[in-house]
Design brief:
mainly alpha, Na+/H+ antiporter like fold, ion transport, transmembrane, Na+/solute_symporter_sf, Cation/H_exchanger_TM, Cation:proton antiporter
């Protein structure tokens, strides 16, 4: 019965993934909002009692499913970005200035603020840090309404025309991997004890080493696949000429696998691989075809996860939620992230006439639309696997509530705000 229900949920997700985007395109309602609501309604029906919904008992399944959703989204995000980033060109780095400020200033402030709120609410230091690390990164999965639409091809001088969407997209692509070192702070606090015993290891390996390994792995895999697809001397291997877009799946799986096997952050490897591949033959239509495959797979997997999440919400997932969890989740969405974002973007900002510059309304929008989603669930499941004491019911309830609250708040506001701030309107 349970297996049959899984097929039913998967089929419903596929159907909704096909019809919802067009049906909801003119309304301030997002597909994630609808899926969570439908799931909650399904959860109120007399379903079998043995459904695999308990996060404690099904932690490994949650970890692997959410992991897959995130890496598929990261591949799509990396392929969608038109603005180049050359390691040897300082000018290209300046054009990403808003992204760097959100990552280097906004994200640590958010982690620290949420961790402080969690510690004040009575959490142990390790659990408080984990809560901050789980909820700090914006999500590439649920943020499609505020991200760039896809790669623009056919023009040798492609670049992003919408600075706001570019900032939100590039931030979501990078901060999932960059939040991992702080997840390891929580794990090390829970398993290794005093900070003095592992501080140097954390800085040298978890903060620097694993980031470098992930980035290098992504660049190497991306360049190898780009050479294969576009420039191989063997015509049968030049898959770009045939338009074989399933290479996107091979790229995301290979880059993630290489990054993880070498000991780096696989999320960074996937995003870097996609960016590197995108830099080859930038105007080629093949990038759009690959992006479409990643986007469709991401949409299907996301809606499936959200439907299951909605079912779990009304089947006991929020039983441990109390006023502290509600207060922390709402404070993050309405206060902490907006203030951290504006603190990162407002000082030292570039002129809005320059690439990488945002107007003041765009700065506030970029600060506010820090969508939380599937990545938060993955980090919690991963940490609970490394240190079981970090997988308490209260954390699951609080993180799940925050994800749903973000889906609702950002889903309602994304369409009207983004339409008002479109470059063509300003």
């Amino acid at each position: 019965m349970t297996a049959d229900l899984v097929y039913l949920v998967a089929g419903a997700s596929l159907l909704l993934a096909i019809v919802l985007p067009e049906l909801l395109s003119r309304w301030a309602v997002s597909a994630p909002m609808v899926l969570v609501g439908v799931g909650m309604l399904i959860g109120l029906t007399p379903l079998p009692d043995d459904l695999p919904l308990d996060p404690q008992q099904n932690r490994a399944a949650i970890e692997h499913v959410t992991e897959l959703v995130v890496i598929v989204a990261l591949m799509g995000v990396g392929l969608a970005l038109d603005r180049p980033l050359s390691p040897r060109d300082p000018a290209s780095w300046r054009r990403w200035s808003s992204t760097w400020r959100l990552l280097a200033i906004g994200m640590p402030i958010t982690i620290a603020a949420v961790a402080l709120l969690g510690w004040t609410a009575g959490l142990a230091p390790a659990a408080a840090v984990l809560l901050g690390a789980c909820l700090a990164p914006t999500d590439p999965v649920l943020a499609s309404d505020v991200q760039v639409a896809g790669p623009q091809t056919g023009d040798l001088e492609v670049d992003e025309a919408d600075e706001l969407r570019f900032t939100l997209t590039s931030e979501a692509g990078l901060n999932d991997g960059l939040a991992f070192p702080f997840v390891y702070v929580a794990i090390l606090l829970a398993t290794e004890g005093a900070v003095s015993q592992w501080a140097l290891t954390w800085v040298g390996y978890y903060l620097i080493g694993k980031i470098v390994i992930g980035v290098v792995a992504g660049i190497v895999v991306g360049r190898a696949l780009a050479y294969l697809a576009f420039r191989s001397s063997n015509r049968s291997l030049r898959v770009a000429e045939r338009g074989e877009s399933l290479l996107a799946l091979a790229a995301l799986i290979a880059s993630y696998g290489v990054g993880e096997v070498l000991g780096g952050y696989g999320f960074l490897a996937v995003f870097t691989c996609a960016m590197t591949f995108r830099s080859a033959e930038r105007s080629h239509d093949y990038h759009a075809a690959m992006h479409e495959v990643a986007e469709r797979l991401e949409r299907l997997l996301t809606l499936f996860v959200l439907l299951v999440l909605g079912i779990a919400l009304t089947r006991g997932l929020l039983d441990a939620l109390d006023w502290r969890g509600v207060a922390i989740g709402l404070a993050l969405i309405l206060v902490v992230r907006p203030l951290a974002g504006i603190l990162a973007l407002a000082p030292w900002s570039r002129s809005s006439d320059d690439a990488g510059g945002l107007t003041r309304p765009q700065q506030w929008a970029a600060a506010f639309f820090g969508v939380r989603g599937v990545g938060s669930l993955y980090y919690l499941a991963y940490a609970a696997g490394q240190a079981p004491e970090l997988g308490g019911d209260w954390l699951w309830s609080t993180v799940s509530f925050t994800v749903v609250a973000s889906v609702l708040v950002h889903g309602v506001l994304s369409t009207p705000v983004m339409m008002r701030l479109e470059p063509s309107r300003t």
